[in-house]
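$ ./design --mode recover --in tokens.txt
reading tokens...
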């Protein structure tokens, strides 16, 4: 029998929001366990929660700042803490979920950092109620719970047992391991928005050889394409990445097909295109190759050398007109001038559904960086400019757009 994965939440993004109840002390154990599971965990706390457990505990467990002040100044592009948290989260856990916070959430009230984050996120929300039995059984609380369930919120507990006030009854928060089990289930790829979808992505550079030791290429590292692959797998897709030469690691759960030249990448794509739902051409495929490649190393003689170049095949253009064309075809445009007009022309010329354009002359945008700043254009005319952000976050936003396009087909 295969051993269970020691880090089942590797790379998953979880926000744990803590409200003011005695059970808040147990959330340290939950956060610790999620971090051990490989999740990227951020914690937000109400003012009342800080009376039961200090932010320094969660900072030590997550190695990240704890969000406690919705008025804190943040650097761009995360100018507002609650918006940054809401967009970061793949899942938001409210534990303990007090009667007061449940009531606010049920009626759309947002008067602190936690409730504004809850209202702003589009991620699933898991609620772990904790309160006195009389408060839990109060018809007003039950009406709020029913309203939240109907709106699609997830619940774990409460349990029946000894309560923080010393009484016994319903209202005891579920234990951290039980909350973790529901987190694992909710973040299981089988429940993701791309479950059942097949995705094919190209990533990294290609090399076009002049002789056994020299080649034409570019500085691409494949980081953006691999971030897209990781995000797609996290959303439940079956993902294959056709990967040019790079030292970047392939995300868990993603099949990698290693190639070197544009010709090899074209062959690998063609062999795997049938049955694909989404194709993303994120690779920086060399536009030209030497007309001839020498079998032996060309010796330096001091005399000028002329090299004749031939265009390489346009892989994404072939995909867009293939009989096996995927439902959605996404391309990239790395430009140094006239970004939007160049990208729009490429979108139309190649028959793409969505194009991701970035200005490679801008700092932190382009080859080899951990961040990107992109413009999204699609075939419906929709335009969206994204601020500079980590490539994994860019990947998340791209997949949100792709899911929209899939839903429209």
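writing sequence...
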């Amino acid at each position: 029998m295969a051993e269970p994965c020691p880090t089942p939440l590797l790379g998953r993004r979880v926000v744990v929001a803590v409200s003011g109840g005695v059970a808040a002390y147990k959330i340290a154990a939950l956060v610790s366990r999620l971090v051990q599971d490989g999740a990227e965990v951020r914690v937000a706390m109400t003012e009342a929660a800080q009376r039961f457990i200090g932010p320094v505990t969660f900072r030590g467990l997550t190695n990240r700042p704890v969000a406690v002040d919705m008025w804190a100044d943040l650097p761009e592009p995360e100018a507002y803490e609650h918006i940054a948290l809401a967009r970061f989260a793949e899942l938001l856990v409210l534990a303990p979920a007090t009667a007061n916070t449940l009531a606010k959430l049920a009626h759309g009230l947002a008067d602190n950092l936690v409730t504004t984050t809850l209202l702003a996120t589009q991620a699933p929300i898991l609620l772990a109620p904790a309160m006195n039995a009389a408060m839990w059984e109060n018809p007003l609380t039950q009406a709020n719970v029913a309203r939240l369930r109907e709106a699609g919120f997830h619940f774990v507990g409460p349990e029946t047992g000894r309560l923080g006030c010393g009484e016994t009854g319903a209202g005891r928060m579920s234990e951290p391991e039980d909350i973790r089990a529901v987190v694992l289930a909710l973040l299981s790829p089988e429940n993701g928005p791309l479950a059942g979808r097949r995705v094919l992505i190209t990533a990294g550079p290609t090399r076009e050889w002049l002789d056994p030791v020299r080649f034409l290429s570019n500085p691409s590292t494949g980081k953006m394409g691999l971030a897209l692959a990781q995000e797609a797998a996290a959303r439940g897709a079956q993902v294959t990445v056709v990967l040019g030469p790079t030292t970047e690691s392939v995300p868990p759960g993603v099949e990698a097909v290693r190639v070197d030249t544009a010709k090899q990448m074209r062959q690998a794509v063609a062999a795997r295109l049938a049955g694909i739902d989404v194709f993303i051409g994120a690779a920086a495929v060399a536009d030209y190759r030497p007309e001839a490649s020498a079998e032996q190393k060309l010796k330096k003689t001091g005399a000028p050398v002329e090299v004749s170049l031939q265009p390489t095949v346009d892989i994404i253009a072939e995909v867009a007109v293939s009989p096996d064309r995927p439902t959605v075809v996404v391309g990239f445009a790395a430009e140094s001038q006239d970004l939007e007009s160049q990208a729009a022309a490429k979108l139309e010329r190649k028959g793409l559904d969505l194009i991701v354009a970035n200005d490679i002359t801008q700092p932190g945008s382009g080859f080899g960086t951990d961040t990107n700043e992109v413009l999204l254009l699609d075939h419906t005319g929709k335009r969206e400019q994204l601020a500079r952000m980590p490539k994994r976050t860019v990947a998340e936003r791209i997949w949100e757009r792709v899911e929209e396009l899939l839903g429209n087909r």
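exit 0
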